[in-house]
């Protein structure tokens, strides 16, 4: 692997370790030309099987762009979106599958998005789960109220606002 600093075409591994969950190998490399060190990570490839039957590499950028649409006008930062996408990827990888259905990627997005912003969650879920009547929304809102009415309520920072005024 070439050096990212000086583009020297070779580098040597000075340290190699497996992450705690065993899903990643990190290598510390040193460039023999400029002497600088950098890290590489090796993970099993993860592909997403689309409804069309085509499979493509899992992409955090695609998760982010899908969720970003649902977050329009909401107080959700790029950092939060990046963290959500990372969590989605980790959740999927921890399942140990090499290929995952696109539908299951959507499923993996729902929980972290619910924790991030309830309105964005409702938008995403309504499209993803094909809500086609008011009763679908009512059922989802009832469930969210029940979940947020529990011991988690104190953890809500108030920036989410009540769902009822937003819909
Ligand atoms: Zn170098």
Automatic annotation (TrEMBL):
Zn finger limits (unnamed): 3-34
InterPro entries for the chain: ATP-cone_dom, NrdR-like_N, RNR_NrdR-like
Cofactors that this protein relies on: Zn(2+)
Keyword entries, A-Z: ATP-binding, DNA-binding, Metal-binding, Nucleotide-binding, Repressor, Transcription, Transcription regulation, Zinc, Zinc-finger
Record domain ATP-cone: where: 46-136
Chain segments carrying region Disordered: 147-167
Note on cofactor: Binds 1 zinc ion.
Protein name: Transcriptional repressor NrdR
Role: Negatively regulates transcription of bacterial ribonucleotide reductase nrd genes and operons by binding to NrdR-boxes.
Similarity remark: Belongs to the NrdR family.
Pfam families: ATP-cone (PF03477), Zn_ribbon_NrdR (PF22811)
């Amino acid at each position: 692997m070439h050096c990212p600093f000086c583009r020297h075409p070779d580098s040597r591994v000075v340290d190699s370790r497996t992450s705690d969950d065993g899903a990643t190998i990190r290598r510390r490399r040193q460039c023999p030309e400029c002497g600088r060190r950098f890290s590489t990570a090796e993970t099993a490839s993860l592909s997403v099987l689309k409804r069309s039957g085509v499979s493509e590499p899992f992409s955090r950028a695609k998760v982010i762009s899908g969720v970003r649409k649902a977050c329009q006008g909401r107080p959700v930062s790029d950092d939060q979106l990046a963290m959500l996408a990372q969590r989605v990827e980790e959740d999927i990888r921890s399942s140990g599958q090499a290929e995952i259905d696109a539908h299951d990627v959507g499923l993996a997005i729902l929980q972290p998005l619910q924790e991030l912003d309830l309105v964005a969650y409702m938008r995403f879920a309504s499209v993803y789960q094909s809500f086609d009547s008011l009763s679908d929304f009512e059922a989802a809102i009832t469930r969210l109220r029940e979940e947020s009415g529990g011991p988690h309520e104190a953890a809500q920072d108030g920036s989410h606002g009540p769902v009822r005024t937003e819909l």
